[in-house]
Amino acid sequence: MNALGYCPQCNKTLSLTDSFTCSCGYLIEVDQELHLCPFCKKQDFYKQKDFNPLIGRIIFIIAAILSLFTYGLSFIVFYIIDFFLYKKIPFLVLCYYCGSHFRDVLRIHEIKEFDHYKADMIKYNQDV
């Protein structure tokens, strides 16, 4: 599993695959099944497609500009492209608390997609 997050002690950006000791001395244990976040020690995660949203916006803008010349047919073509990209791109797991990213998680099928209510409850320190 690949993990990208911040060290809780020194706030240094870390990218790791196994157990890791930060330069500040903080030990980070990475669990492939992701029971706890190795960075913030919380257990609330969600999954989303591992796709850069900026690329999605650029694709939409290109389709919108081309629609002026194609009478909207470019939207259908780009919809088909988007559909195949969605099916092909794997999921990424994120921590609700610290926003750390995790790839190649073993139990990814058990993790639910983003929940706005849960995120708001965590953000405003309410009981979930």
Characterise this structure.
This protein has 128 residues and is α+β, with helices and mostly antiparallel strands. The protein has two domains: 1-50 and 90-128, no CATH class; 53-89. It is built from three helices and seven strands, in the order βββββααββα. It has helices at residues 53-70, 73-88, 116-123; strands at residues 2-6, 13-16, 20-21, 27-28, 45-49, 91-95, 101-103. The strands form two sheets. Strands 2-1-7-6-5 form a five-stranded antiparallel β-sheet, with no helix packed on it. A two-stranded antiparallel ribbon has the order 3-4. A hairpin with a 6-residue loop joins β1 (2-6) and β2 (13-16). α1 (53-70) runs antiparallel to α2. The protein is elongated. The chain starts with a strand and ends in a 5-residue tail after the last helix. The relative contact order is 0.21.
Descriptors:
128 residues, alpha+beta, 2 domains, five-stranded antiparallel β-sheet, 3 helices, 20% strand, elongated
In short:
The chain has three helices and seven strands; from the N terminus they run E-E-E-E-E-H-H-E-E-H.
Query: Cα distance, first to last residue?
Result: 27 Å
Question: What is the strand tally?
Answer: 7
Low-pLDDT residue spans: none
Report Rg.
Answer: 19 Å
Number of domains: 2
Q: How do the helices and strands follow one another from N- to C-terminus?
A: EEEEEHHEEH
Given helix and strand content, the structural type is: alpha+beta
Rough outline: elongated
Helix content: 25-40%
Average pLDDT reading: 86
Q: How are the strands of the largest sheet arranged?
A: 2-1-7-6-5
Report the biggest beta sheet as strand number plus sense, adding barrel if it closes.
Answer: 5 strands, antiparallel
Beta-strand residue fraction: 15-25%
State the helix count. 3
